[in-house]
Structure formats: C-alpha cells, structure tokens
C-alpha cells in the first residue's frame, strides 16, 4: 500500500482532495516525512489543519532571509523559489501568470508576508 493510501485512510481524507494532497506533498516532500504522519493522532480536521499551519510557518521562517538569497535562487529555479517564498504548492500555469521581475515579486511580498501568490500577481498587474 502506498504512503498516500495509508495516509488517506489514517486521516480519513479522500485521495480525490487534490488541493489537500498537493499541500501535504509540498510540506512533507519525502515519503519518510509523510510516513511520520501515520503515527500522529489528530482528533479533528481542525487539529490537522493547525499542525499543517505550524509546519507552514516554520518553513516560512526558514525561507529567504535576504533579497539576494531570493534572487539567486530565483535564477536557478523560478517555480521552486516562488513556492518557497509563498509557502504554497503551485503549478506551471500559476507561475506563468507572473510577468514581472524577481525584484518586483520580492518587493510586493515583503510588504505582506502572509500574501498568497495569486494575490501578489493581482497586485502587480492591477495595483489593487
């Protein structure tokens, strides 16, 4: 049985909940990290969401501390860098919506670090 199938049964969340599973894969990229979730007991879905939000916050703290680190990483891998900055899984269609420079993205994101990627795109395109 695959890890995702075991987790689906353990967490009582359907495999068709693609947004949830893509977020889980983003927060816990390796099978070993995902297997550790099998040993955790979450009484409610709210407990699980709380745990995921804490994990996301820890990843955000360890993301990019300086603009230079961000710009260097952006040159190497645009999609991965954007995912790390905004702490959310993104597909190629979403990342291709960004038409500005890496400096523009850093500038917008640094004003509100809780902002989602598509909100950043909207701000860049429409200024709202």
From TrEMBL:
Domain of life: Bacteria
Name of the featured protein: Uncharacterized protein
Species classification: Bacteria, Bacillati, Bacillota, Bacilli, Bacillales
């Amino acid at each position: 049985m695959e890890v995702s199938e075991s987790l689906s049964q353990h967490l009582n969340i359907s495999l068709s909940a693609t947004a949830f599973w893509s977020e889980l894969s983003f927060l816990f990229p390796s099978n070993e990290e995902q297997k550790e979730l099998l040993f955790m007991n979450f009484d409610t879905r709210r407990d699980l969401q709380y745990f995921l939000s804490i994990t996301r916050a820890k990843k955000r703290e360890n993301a990019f501390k300086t603009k230079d680190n961000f710009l260097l990483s952006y040159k190497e891998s645009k999609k991965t860098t954007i995912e790390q900055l905004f702490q959310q899984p993104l597909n190629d269609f979403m990342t291709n919506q960004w038409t500005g420079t890496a400096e523009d993205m850093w500038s917008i994101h640094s004003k509100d670090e809780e902002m989602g990627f598509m909100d950043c795109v909207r701000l860049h395109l429409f200024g709202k």
